[in-house]
Every structure is written in structure tokens, then in C-alpha cells.
Amino acid sequence: MFNIDKVRGILARYEHIHPEDSYSLNQYWxxxxxxxxxxxxxxxxxxxxSCTSQELVLLSEVNDELIDATQSELLIHALKTxxxxxxxxxxxxQLDADLDFTISRHINDKDxxxxxxxxxxxxxx
Length: 125
Prior knowledge:
Elements: H1 4-13, H2 22-37, H3 40-49, H4 53-59, H5 63-70, H6 73-85, H7 87-92, H8 95-106, H9 110-118
Helix pairs in contact: 1-2, 3-6, 5-8, 6-8
């Protein structure tokens, strides 16, 4: 079961980590990845339904690890859909370009990667 309180608790730690404290950053990213990988389907649901723009920015830091571990087309669709809901932060932090780079590097099936790179979410309501 997706534990949103656990994930939000981990996300809250970020603001207290000094940008040059590589040990704490790496531990933060590992904890966040592990928490999200506990229930990928729950994470997908969270992205589609209740993720805030700031959470999306922070969560994007571990896209490489999640996509590499899951190879999940559904996860990539959910990430692209969440980015479409927040075009301002997606542009500001180049989340779409980062995700495309992650897809091209971490999806093992290169034909699938091409399809995922071309995929766009349906118009949001």
C-alpha cells in the first residue's frame, strides 16, 4: 500500500539538506526511491490524482532510479500526465527534457523507448 505520509515525510527532509552534503542527499534519494518502489501502482495513482507541483519537482529527482528499476510504461505515462498538469514548473525545471533523457537512457527496449518519447497525454480536463 502506498504510504503518502512516509513519502511526504521524506520529501520534507529535503529543505534541511545542504546542497553540498552529498552523503545526506544520497541517503535522501535512496530513501525516497525505496519508499516509491514499495508500491509503484500506488505511486502512479498519487501522480495522477493528488501530487502537487512542488512534490512533482522533488519526486523528479529519482526518476532515473524508478524507471531503471521498473521499466514501467504506466509510470512514464503518469509522470508525463503530471507534468502536463503543471506546465509552469515543468518548463522552469525542464522536467520534460529530463524525463525524455531518462527514458532514452534507462528503458532497455529501444523501440519501446521511442514510443514512450513520442507519447503525449490526452487533453486534461
